[in-house]
Amino acid sequence: MRPGPGADKRIGPAAGHGVSRAAARNPEEAGVEAHLLARARAGDLDAFVQLIGLHDERLRALAYRLMGDAQLMDDVLQEAYLKAFRSLRGFQERSAFGSWLYRIVYNTCMDQLRRRSSIGQHLSLGEAGGLPDRAPDPGEVAAQRLDLAAALAALPPKMRATVLLVDAEGMDYQTAAGVLGIPVGTVRSRLSQARQLLRRALSEGEQGRDES
Amino acid sequence: MSGDREHRPGRRGAGERDEILGAALRRLEVPAHQPGFFAELRANLSAAVPGQEAADLKRPARPGWGRPRRGRVRHPRGWTLGLAAAAAVVLALLLVVTGLPGGGPRMASAAEVRAAVARAWASARAIAGVLAVDYPHPVPYAPQHERWRFLLTARGDFRQTGLDHPGITAYDAGTNIERSLSTSASMPGSTELFASQLTGLAPGPPDSGPSSESLDRSLGSVVRAMATGHGGRVRAVTYQGRPAWLFDTNVPASSDMFPDHLQVTVDQRTGFPVRVLASLDGRILYETRIEDLTVNPPIPKRAFALRFPPGKEVFHTDFGFRRVAPDDAGRIVGYAPLAPASIPAGYHLSEVMVAEKPSPTGTNPAVGDIVSLSYRRGLDQFIVTTRPVGTNPGAWRDPLANGEGNFTGPQRVTFSSGALAGRQGHLVIGSFAAPHLWALTRTLVVTISGDLTRAQLLQVADSLRAAP
């Protein structure tokens, strides 16, 4: 395996501090979010659902990549959104609302994954094929030229979440560390490992397509 | 996930990103929510008391009738859920259809149109309108055009009145009586009306249920077929003065009687399909239009009652099904029927029926002591049935197979948990057939059928338990 050409040059400048795709809104959108947040905190369910709607697409992506199954994605998001609603009054706006939601979703996913691994898998045969838990070793995945999704699914969930938050969602390391509840240094080390493995998968995939 | 967005320039040192990897990660597909997700969320939020820990969220599953669960979130039962949920679903639809607040209108993707249609179907309490079907190549003696005024509710009531031909059918789900005045198919051209009354109807397949087939074929099957297909092309159009999506999609063809392509016009405001062009190998098989569509219309009193003219001879048929209290079913049939401990979001148990009288399904042995559980979510429905296997288990074939050819080749699946654990079953997903699954236990024949995806069918099957 070798890294793809120019892999080292792919690193771009960071987004502004605390500015991610999730948070990068224009002033009008930010105003809408603030207005909805105020109404939701006052107990307005409609406002809360709209607020969720502003972030749902990205949270779905995180939950799906962590859980590896659409049904489980919905289950954890139901649970996470309910938790968020219940905790809304305690949200002190020390982080962006979106980052706070990410944290709740991430923690709910990790709780669910821990629970599932402790009780063992009891799934239909048909479902078993899509589970990340059964994925092979990350190195093997890259070697076998499976696509990026498979390589991502083969990463440990914590590493997966880190690369998704930083590279896909554009969070800076500090914000990602806050969401994941880990030091910035750990974000760096996880990213370094994850990127190596995923770049190999990417470059192998590209090479495979070129050859075909 | 949505496509690339520009990175904002920011200060150095806050972290670095791999732009190429990030772009590739953002291109990975992410599924839409299951239909009814936001309805369920709204229901859960409504039930939540802020600041109080949700003790019941952590309770383990309880097998039986009363409170099926999905994941770990429990659902309130009854019609109030649908009512409360409808508003949230409409809101969710608005988010999908018009884009997010402040974001301005945008083009919907095929997945979003599919999701919007599924949500509309799953959240409506009732729909009314005129159903028009045109067959460019009718078979001999069959009409080329049909127009019906219809009213259909989430409880299962319906009324169809012929507009270009005589005939009326009304089914009252409350009394489980269907009455009709209709012409005879064996007397082409005749306008003589025959009166019939059906009682003891089953909730639906594989047993004889209300005859809302034409509505289901025209509306429900399109929703199912859209769900079965993949990809598709969406264009924004105006249809009868209203904003709409024109959605082209291929659907799995199962025989030369069923389409391999659908062009569906979806009304953006309601999420309902209002025109369908169904074709096979580029040849139009039929065109269906819904005119004057009204979602959640007011329902007149006695809308589903039909009076026969005095002195009219009435043909009576009783199918033997009776609505019973859930806890009485086992006592009546003499065995513990199977009920799911886990059901997809938004569904609720709407009725439990039993039939002691033997009746056949397909080419199978006629057996009695059938238990049929009906679950509903808006206009969606799925049914779980159990019946004794009898003395010759090897004689059983798919109870839902009706020979129409609208599905082929069942898939063999092995169940991992619940009453069916370790047993094999047969799963059928076809574009124009009710998705279903059937299996045998040592003593019972089990069917699950209706508006469910493959994963949901397996979810329900793996959670079946003997009901107390």
Please explain how this structure is put together:
The complex is a heterodimer of chains A (212) and B (468). Chain A is mostly helical and 212 residues long. Chain A folds into two domains: 25-120, RNA polymerase sigma factor, region 2, helix turn helix motif (Rna Polymerase Sigma Factor, Chain: A); 135-212, Winged helix-like DNA-binding domain superfamily/Winged helix DNA-binding domain (Arc Repressor Mutant, subunit A, Orthogonal Bundle). Chain A has helices at 27-41, 45-67, 70-87, 97-119, 125-128, 138-143, 148-154, 157-168, 173-180, 184-211; one strand at 11-12. Chain A is globular, with a radius of gyration of 18 Å. Chain A starts with 10 loop residues before the first strand and ends with a helix. Chain B has 468 residues and is α+β, with helices and mostly antiparallel strands. Chain B has helices at 19-27, 37-47, 79-98, 110-123, 213-228, 329-333, 454-462; strands spanning 17-18, 69-70, 73-74, 126-134, 145-153, 158-162, 168-172, 177-182, 194-199, 233-239, 242-250, 261-267, 273-280, 283-295, 314-318, 321-323, 338-340, 348-355, 370-377, 380-388, 411-414, 424-428, 436-440, 444-450, 464-466. Chain B has a twelve-stranded mixed beta sheet with strand order 10-11-12-13-14-4-5-6-7-8-9-15, covered by helices on one side. Residues 1-14 and 49-106 of chain B have low confidence and may be disordered. At the A-B interface, strand 1, helix 1, helix 2, helix 3 and helix 5 of A face strand 1, helix 1, helix 2, helix 3 and strand 21 of B. Strand 1 (11-12) of chain A pairs antiparallel with strand 1 of chain B, so a sheet runs across the interface.
Key features of this structure:
heterodimer; A: 212 residues; mainly alpha; Rna Polymerase Sigma Factor, Chain: A; Arc Repressor Mutant, subunit A; 2 domains; 10 helices; 68% helix; disordered N terminus; B: 468 residues; alpha+beta; outer membrane lipoprotein receptor (LolB), chain A; Phosphorylase Kinase, domain 1; twelve-stranded mixed beta sheet; eight-stranded antiparallel beta sheet; 25 strands; 18% helix; 32% strand
